[in-house]
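Most newcomers find our protein records easier to grasp once they have seen one. There is nothing in a record beyond a sequence line and a structure line. Getting from the letters to the tokens is the skill we practise here. An example says more than a description, so a record of this kind follows:
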Amino acid sequence: MRPTYIKFNRDRLPEYQIATFVRNKDDHFLVEKVALTESAIPHLESLVRYRNEAKLSSFQLPSVENIENGIKLEYISGHSFDALLLDLFVADRIKELKEVLVDFKERMKANSTFYHDFRSCAEFKKVFRVDVALKDVWCQEHPNIDLIFENVILKDGFYYIIDFEWTFDFAVPLEYIIYRSIMHFYYNYIHEFRKNINIDFFWELMEISPEKLATYKAVEAGFQDYVYGEDRPYSINKGIKKKSTTLDELISAPQILERKLQEVHTAKDLEIKVLKDEALTLQKQSEDMVRYNVAINSEVEALRSELTKVESRLCDMAKELDNAVTMKACLSQELTQKNEAIDKLLSSKSWKMTKPLRVGLKWLNKLK
């Protein structure tokens, strides 16, 4: 069977040096991991033990069997979890990206235990080279700390963990495993985009405090020393190390780029459609405002006309009032004159002298 993918891990300490092969025979794939040193065989055997003993409620594991100097794993074909996250990020579907990450964290918590007081045990200190004490944390008691997103495949609604090389039999904080996954995903994919999302976005989403981040950074540094050695005796200088690319990767690269470009175009088309809809809405609102202004202006003109009529009427009423006041003054003066004439008559000598005559006439009128 011809290999379609080969990866050698020669930069690790001898007890962890392995090679990974993905082989293809008649379009049937399988994965082999082979020890490059005799001391690395127990490391690979731990994968078989973990596969047989792990009790995971939210994840699936491929079948594993021993072969000479290594193991053979079932090849799981599907959509990688890191590709899903990257697709959502590229399309600016940030809300869905958050939901998928939070759901992933909840799946991990389903296989975890809550510790009010976590203290690192002797085995923990041997692997991670630090002493850790944390309050109120979820921990995995049989952890797979290599649960980076590219090691998770989505298939038929299930989450498959395709690589579980680094597993232990002691408790490890769940947030540390998430820390490793986010660091790998961010600095391999998101960081290069230089968008408005920085790594703090993921820490806030995963609710990992700055204090705990400092702790997990120290834990990760200790783990790297555990795998590669403190002075990295087997590491190849990055300046001379060349990245290997398989033939299948070269063949599929144009299709992958075309798919990414199509996704970007689709996202931009959607953005343009949203902007057009917003423009139409604004145009309709503008037309409604114009009609409203016309109606308001018409109503204002009608009110102005009515106000002119009222003002004219008020002017007429003011004139009538002036005339009435003048007439009242004249009548008042005339009344005063008449009252003075009556008073003058009543006080006159003739009025007094004719009083008996008036009294007599009054009696005569009564006798009639």
Notes: The chain has ten helices and eleven strands. Residues 12 and 109 are 31 Å apart (CA to CA). The radius of gyration is 49 Å. Residues 247-346 form the longest helix (100 residues).
